[in-house]
Structure formats: C-alpha cells, structure tokens
Amino acid sequence: MKNYLSITDIDSLPKWVKEARSLKINPVAHKGLGTNKTIGLLFFNNSLRTRLSTQKAAMNLGMEVMVMNFGNEGWALEYGDGTIMDQGTSEHIKEAAQVISQYCDIIAIRAFASLTDKAKDESEEVLNGFKKYSTVPIVNMESSTGHPLQALADAITLAEHNTKDRPKVVLSWAPHPKALPHAVANSFVQMMQLQDAEFVITHPEGYELDPNITKDASIEYDQKKAFENADFVYAKNWSNYSNYGMVLNQDPDWMITKDKLGGAKFMHCLPVRRNVIVEDSVLDSQQSLVIEEANNRTYAAQLVLKKILEDLE
Ligand code: AN0
Ligand code: CP
User: How far is ligand 1, taken at its centre, from the CA of residue 235, in Å?
Assistant: First the structure.
C-alpha cells in the first residue's frame, strides 16, 4: 500500500481488523520492520490520541518519529499554482513537501476542515498538496473530509465487542456548542458500508451529511426510534453540511443519556464534552467503549504503517 488517505484504501476490512487484532496481542512482533526509517507527523491542528497513538505505533515498529506542530510553528503554506506570494503565505507546498520527503520515509498529516469554504475543504488542499508533491507515502491523521485511522480503530472495537451476525449500529448526531467537522462521521459511515450490519444514522432534520458519502444509508430523524434494539450507539457532533459549517441546533434533547441508550454499547472518538454530547452516567458505565477505542488507535495506525513499510521494502 502506498498511501492511507481514506477508508477506500482498505482492500479488505475483515482482513485488516483481524491483522490489527493480532498486532494488539503482540505489538512488538515487527520491531525490525521500521529500523532506520523515520516518520514525520505534521499537525496543523490540536491532538491528543492521534499524536500519541501514531507515535506509539511507529515506536512499536522500531521507527524514529519526528513531530511538528505545523499550524503554530511552520511557515504558512501556499497551495495555489502561480500565486504571487506577496500576502500571508511564506512557503509553497511544492518546496515544503519535497524538503520534508528528504527527511522522512512516511509523512502523516492532520489538517482539519476550515468549515468556511466547502469547495476548498472538499478539494482536500493540504492532504492532496502533500500527496502531489511528496516523494514518500502519506497518511491521513484527519483531513477536511475524513478520519480513516479513527474509523479503522472503531471497526476493531466493534469487532471486539460484537456478539451477533448482523448487529444494529446507530450513528447519532449529538449537540455541541462549536462548529465541528464532518470527517469522523464521514469515515465512520464509509467504514460501516464495508460490513454487514443494520446501520442507521439519526440526526435532526437538515443535518444530513454529504449524500455522496451516506449514499443509500438509512436515516431516522426520531432518535428514540433509531435507538430501538441498538447494539452500538456511536455519538458525534457535526456542524451543518448544507448551510456549511453553521451551528443551527444545540438541542440538549439530542444528548445521549443512559435511559435512551438501553442495553447498547456507547462509542465516541474523543475528545468528548461531558453532559453535552453524553451524560456522565454513560461514560462512567461498563457500556462505554471510549477508552478501548482510543487504545485501538495504536493498532489501527500500526497496521497502516506496517503495510506501508512492507511496500517500501
Ligand atoms: C474534532 C472533530 O470533531 O473532527 C476531532 C475529533 C477527533 N473534534 C473537536 O474539534 C472537538
Ligand atoms: N480521536 C482523535 O482523533 O483524537 P485527537 O483529536 O485527540 O487526536
């Protein structure tokens, strides 16, 4: 595998989940694979889990890791072709990507959606800029439209806790005071499309995700109905998609409560706002899988890096 940019780079989700679970049993089994190989982690946005789990994954494979908070500490990058760079940007992606490629064998990038310019976000300017001008493989650590490392970790978590042939999995929108990206929800939807499950999305009317991503997924506007007989409830806030990046609804009735959850397991990518997205009694119960999901980020990243390293050999 050359790059890991989206869920669609996974050739067989069941095989990947199986292999990630075996890495989890013996994380340092392939310690020699990354010897004398360097990964550069470039962060244009904040992170806890992605930063530490990807670093841990690289260390488990014996790689060297360089981390750069590009958003605060790097030069402001220009992505336009032929731009007269007499404004805010200091360095062109053409030079930056080629230079970083000389220091790193793999480049991983986090660059969130702006949530102000839909066309620009959907063009994946940063991720695709690095893909175009780097001479080494690229890994997506959450771009404008996707978070495929999170979705792979979620697939591992679902597999570990599923007891049925065809579980019911519900993706529920939940309230949040700030405008949040669609990336996590998008990749979760795409990941669910790669497996057999009864998959339902619930959100307030008007909060539809990109229809090119949800395709024919079943949407139920009544959250209580959607949660009936659910085995897993995956909560996530996203800002409005059609009124791009707007916060048009903060209705606390959409918060996930113990009462609504019934016997289902609770999932969330974290960071989570307690008693806004979900109440304490859910997060503090045995039904919450959030800590295990975060643990599985290491093995998701490790599997991706392992596949890229094997391809480099
Ligand atoms: C980000 C998001 O919603 O995309 C990162 C989640 C992994 N969340 C926040 O900014 C709170
Ligand atoms: N879930 C996740 O990607 O968390 P961070 O934003 O802390 O990396």
Answer: 12
